[in-house]
Structures are given as C-alpha cells and as structure tokens.
Amino acid sequence: MRIPLCLLSVMLLIITTMASSSETRGTATPDADTPSAILRDAALVRFRGANSPSPEQPGDTDCNSPAHWDGETLYVFNSAGHPWRSAGPDLFRLGQSPGGQGYIRAEYNNKVNGGRWIESTHKDDDGTLYGWYHNEPGGLVPGTGLTAPKIGALRSKNNGMNWEDLGIVLEARPGTLRPDTPNKYFAGGNGDFSVILDREKKYFYFFISTYWGATSDQGVAAARMLYKDRNEPVGKVWKWHKGEWSEPGIGGYVTPIFPAKTDWHREDVDAFWGASIHWNTHLGQYVILLNRAIDKNWKQEGVYVSFNRDLSNPTGWTPPKKILGGLRADGWYPQVIGLSKENRETDKLAGKAARLFVRGESRWEIVFMKLGEPQMP
User: Which tens digit of pLDDT belongs to each residue from 332-364?
Assistant: First the structure.
C-alpha cells in the first residue's frame, strides 16, 4: 500500500490552473445523458490519519477512509498498515468525541501475515459494523518488498474499536505472481477497493483493483455477495466475468469494468485503480472516483469520475472523465464525504455537494450536476 467556509467560484466546462499550486481542475462534462462533476476551492480539512501524535500533526491516510454514523457521532477510519479511528460530532470536528474516544487505535482479534488497511465499512440496522480490509502478506518474493494484496472481511460490535476477522473473501488466481515485475509495490494480487450495499439491500458490491494475470485481467473489476451472507462471507463472494457473476472470489477470473491500458508489470503502466464509490441522492446514481497510475512507481496522472444507475450492470459505467490533475506523484485515494448530518451522509452517501478528499486532505468541494442543470454560482 502506498504511503498521500469561504468558497471561491469556478467556471464550468474549462480546466482551471490554480494560482497557488500546480493542480489543475476540470469539469467531467456530460456524454449523452450523463451528469457532471465540478470542483471549487474550500478551506482545508484534514483527516487525523493513522499513527498521528497530535491533531496538528496528521498521520498517514494510505487508502480509502470509510465513515459511518452512530447517533450523533461520525466515525472515520484511516489506515497505514493498521487502522485508527477518529470520532466527532461532524466531519469538521473529528477527534472531539466525548469520553476520550475521539481518536484511538483500532484492534483486531487475531494476527496475520502483513498489514491490514480498512477500506470500507457498513453499519447494519442492528448496530453491527461490518468492514473489509486490504491485506499485504510479506515474504512472497524473497529479497524484495513486493507483495500481492488480498481482501478480507471484518465485524465489530463497538463501532470499530475492536474487530473480528471473518476471513479472506477475494484473492487472485494462483500461479499469477510476477517476481520479475518492475512494479515498485505489487507482483500481483487484488486490493485497493471499496464496497457498497445496493439500494434493495440484496447485494454488497465490491470494486477491486486487479494486478495479476494478463493485461486483459487487470484494472478495476467487480464482485458481489448476498447481504444475507455477511456474517459468513468466505466462499460467498462472486466475481463478474464475461457478463455473469460466475467466478469465485477466491481464485476466480475477472472481466475488468475499467481495464488497464498498459500492463501493471511494465515500467510504463497505464491503469485505473483504487475505486471509491458512493450513492448520490441528487443524481439518483452511483458515482465512482478513480486514480490513474502512469508508471511503475504509481505516479498519479489524475482523479477521474464515472457514473452508473445500476450496480448489477457493470457495463453501465460511463467512460471515466478527469476532474483533477497536477497532484503530487503520490496524491492518491480520492473519495467524497457527504456534508449533511441530517441525511447521515458519509463516504458511501452524498448529495449535490460534498467534500473531495485526496490522501486524507480536502481542499475542494465537489458539486454534482444533472444534465442541463443551471450552473451554480
């Protein structure tokens, strides 16, 4: 895993160069009936991050940072090999939860080979918190730091202070490790993902980054699991392949929905990865944000957005459109956090306006526009 209110108006349908930095912002302009997304500057907000010694010294935010509400408290998890939990009355006051629980190190009930990054959560109606982690086992390619991630499931009864590991649910096909790869981090595997429950509460959908096999196997792929299997998930996740949810989560094939353009195991890799998904109430659609890597060191080319009304149709995602560029080389992990406390908005639920975070920092508000909707001031 890699280690990244006064609003200013912004013109739509152009790319704007920020005077204070090299970042470039663009509008994801519509194709046919697709929506658009624009960015506008906002006051800086930082996640506390993992391993942070104090609020003034943010720690690492090394993956998607899931959030959930319980009563009047918002909980957010940031991970960097291990998860830490921040809590507060809203997004702008994380770490200020009463009772000394504003910022803690979350703990697992077991030990495994390698670190675990919590990338997605789901708060159930009975109060149980489910989570999913990215695991990077060590020792796969002796003499190197290369790994091949896999994805596991978790359960918590106390808002993620303590976690029960339910086992690995998504893993690459055997025999696909690439010890000769020039890639800085991965010799294969699948990870860097997000999970969302559909509106009917029938399936959890996984959007995973795949780094193994032929180039045609690589990119961002989809899998799903029945909601009723959430407490015994091992062997219950199925990957989407050639138009069907037919391949097992452990070792099955995939058909990427955002395929890699150039192999992850070349120096000039060109691939989307690290999907973060939410349901947007203003658009009535699902929205995915993506990273784009353009070399073996995972240099960030930009942040992209895609839309889809139906999770059961992986071919329904619109072509990714760039909304932000000019970031530092390790400016990864774009995601939204919704702004409405009344609507219980999180990283999985947002409305017309939300905060855009990149590597744990938000310098932007992201605004979602329907086709033909008047421009906002």
Answer: 999 999 999 999 999 999 999 999 999 999 999
pLDDT of 98? 76
Please give the residue range of the domain that contains residue 125. 16-369
* Residue at 10 is within a domain: no
Would the pTM count as exceeding 0.90? yes
Q: Which residue has the tokens 């990283």?
A: 347
Q: Which residues of 33-43 are buried (b: 16+ CB within 10 A; e: fewer)?
A: ebbbbbbbbbe
* Nearest alpha carbon to residue 62 among 192, 179, 152: 192
Residue 9 lies in a domain: no
Nearest to 358 by CA among 334, 328, 340, 324: 334
Compute the distance between CA of residue 22 and CA of residue 327 in angstroms, rounded to an integer: 7
- CA neighbours closer than 13 Å in the CB half-sphere of residue 10: 25
SS3 100: helix
According to the model, what pLDDT value does residue 13 have? 28
Number of domains in the chain: 1
- For residue 125, what are its two tokens? 């109606």
Positions of the chain with pLDDT under 50: 2-21, 29-31
CATH assignment at residue 70: 2.115.10.20
Q: pLDDT tens digit string along 21-56?
A: 457 775 554 445 789 999 999 999 999 999 999 888
Q: How far is CA 69 from the centre of its chain?
A: 18
Domain assignment present for 160:
yes
CA-based nearest residue to 256, from 215, 286, 219, 307: 219
Report the 10 Å Cβ neighbour count for 241: 18
CB neighbour burial string for 151-170, b if at least 16 within 10 angstroms, e if fewer: bbbbbbeebbbebebbebbb
